[in-house]
Recover the amino acids of this structure.
């Protein structure tokens, strides 16, 4: 057998980079995965079992069945679809490498497409808030080595980012945090008594949808101002004062926040307030704030879109230049308004996450889904193109949730003849250029 060390896990935004993967001598089958959490290990072991995988592109037939087609036919269909559309949408990009994202954006520019990533239904509100008020942030390495005050607001890392707490935020012993968890105070803000809340020193059980009120109350308490009323957002005001003192008395603190606060009532205004709370706390101690990003390279998608077009998501290229107006140029909004005439999906599953009205609209459009798995999206798109797993069967650059780039490694061979995202996109780009030249 062969052993590959320092492997990154291509599942969640924690992007753990200490996995040890053992394969057979031919590098075809994964035998063992060390250090990963249950979700990460399953991704490696599941991908290496080819028995359940679709290994060639498939086209949806009128009777609802799929017929196998060649990669050349899939490339031709995709190129024709994108080149001939007036306003195609190219959505996803969060579960692939930056190299593929970059090629995809070149196709989008040539075809006047709308390019969007999964931030549209996740941390897009965070990106808007950062543009509003800036962001005092740091790396996860600094959290491990320095942070003694941690807030998890609207997120449940025990389930969604299982090794986040052991590698960076609660348990690890860092340079200035040698006593690990004993040296840290943890506050969880969540309407539910989650597993993350059960290990916190303080659980602020905020009333659903009242995060903005609680954030502003905490800001007032931090600044020594009076909170009117005995209860704010479902939390007794004494607990708010207690939390404020706990945060101010630390040497270095971090707020981690998730979709419980980005996608609840208030949206980007909640994050404005969370960032302003971070700034307020910097009058007393050192504080940072980091979004708990979900897909392993959604952060990279924002980075690559940023380099190429200046905006991190919902970029509309249909007028020949980049426009960005979330709420107007987001994929969900254009699908609801029936504005697009072709749908290309790579590295995400809108069939599982978009409103039903949008899923129905996708099912009516010429559409292509690029995904190693069979998903709700691949079952409604006209063409499904299976590809190699990034981070398992092909390497590439990815960005961790704290905007640190980490190189993913290839540990096994993909099924014979299977293309990678980047190879497929490069072939489509070549064909789109030919079609546009004619
Ligand atoms: Fe993978 Fe996330 Fe688990 Fe780390 S915490 S092993 S990145 S799924």
């Amino acid at each position: 057998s062969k052993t590959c060390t320092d492997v990154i896990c291509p599942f969640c935004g924690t992007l753990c980079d200490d996995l040890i993967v053992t394969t057979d001598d031919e590098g075809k089958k994964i035998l063992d995965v060390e250090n990963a959490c249950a979700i990460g290990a399953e991704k490696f072991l599941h991908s290496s079992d080819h028995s359940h995988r679709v290994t060639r592109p498939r086209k949806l037939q009128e009777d609802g069945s799929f017929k196998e087609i060649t990669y050349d036919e899939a490339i031709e269909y995709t190129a024709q679809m994108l080149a001939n559309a007036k306003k195609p949408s190219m959505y996803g990009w969060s579960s692939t490498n930056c190299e593929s994202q970059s090629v995809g954006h070149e196709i989008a520019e040539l075809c006047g497409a709308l390019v969007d990533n999964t931030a549209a239904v996740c941390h897009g509100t965070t990106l808007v808030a950062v543009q509003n008020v800036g962001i005092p942030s740091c790396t996860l390495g600094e959290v491990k080595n320095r942070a003694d005050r941690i807030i998890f607001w609207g997120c449940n890392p025990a389930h969604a980012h299982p090794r986040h707490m052991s590698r960076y935020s609660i348990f690890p012993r860092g340079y200035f945090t040698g006593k690990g968890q004993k040296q840290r105070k943890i506050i969880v803000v969540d309407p539910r008594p989650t597993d993350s809340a059960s290990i916190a020193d303080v659980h602020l059980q905020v009333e659903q949808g009242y995060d903005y009120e609680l954030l502003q109350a905490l800001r007032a308490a931090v600044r020594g101002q009076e909170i009117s009323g005995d209860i704010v957002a479902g939390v007794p005001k004494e607990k708010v004062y207690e939390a404020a003192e706990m945060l101010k008395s630390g040497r270095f603190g971090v707020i981690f926040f998730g979709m419980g606060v980005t996608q609840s009532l208030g949206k980007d205004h909640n994050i404005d307030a969370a960032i302003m709370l971070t700034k307020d706390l910097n009058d007393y101690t050192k504080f940072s704030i980091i979004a708990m990003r979900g897909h392993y390279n959604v952060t990279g998608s924002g980075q690559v879109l940023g380099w190429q077009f200046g905006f991190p998501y919902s970029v509309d290229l249909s007028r020949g230049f980049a426009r960005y107006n979330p709420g107007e140029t987001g994929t969900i909004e254009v699908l609801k308004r029936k504005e697009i005439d072709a749908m290309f999906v790579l590295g995400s599953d809108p069939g599982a996450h978009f409103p039903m009205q949008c899923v129905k609209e996708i099912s009516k459009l010429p559409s292509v889904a690029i995904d190693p798995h069979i998903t709700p999206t691949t079952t409604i798109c006209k063409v499904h193109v299976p590809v190699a797993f990034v981070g398992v069967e092909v390497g590439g650059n990815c960005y961790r949730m704290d905007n640190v780039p980490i190189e993913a490694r290839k540990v096994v061979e993909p099924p014979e003849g299977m293309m990678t995202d980047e190879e497929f996109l490069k072939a489509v780009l070549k064909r789109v250029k030919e079609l546009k030249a004619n």
Observations:
- The chain has a mean pLDDT of 96.
- Residues 2-48 form one domain.
- The pocket of iron/sulfur cluster is lined by residues 9, 11-12, 14-16, 36-37, 39-40, 161-164 (CB under 6 Å).
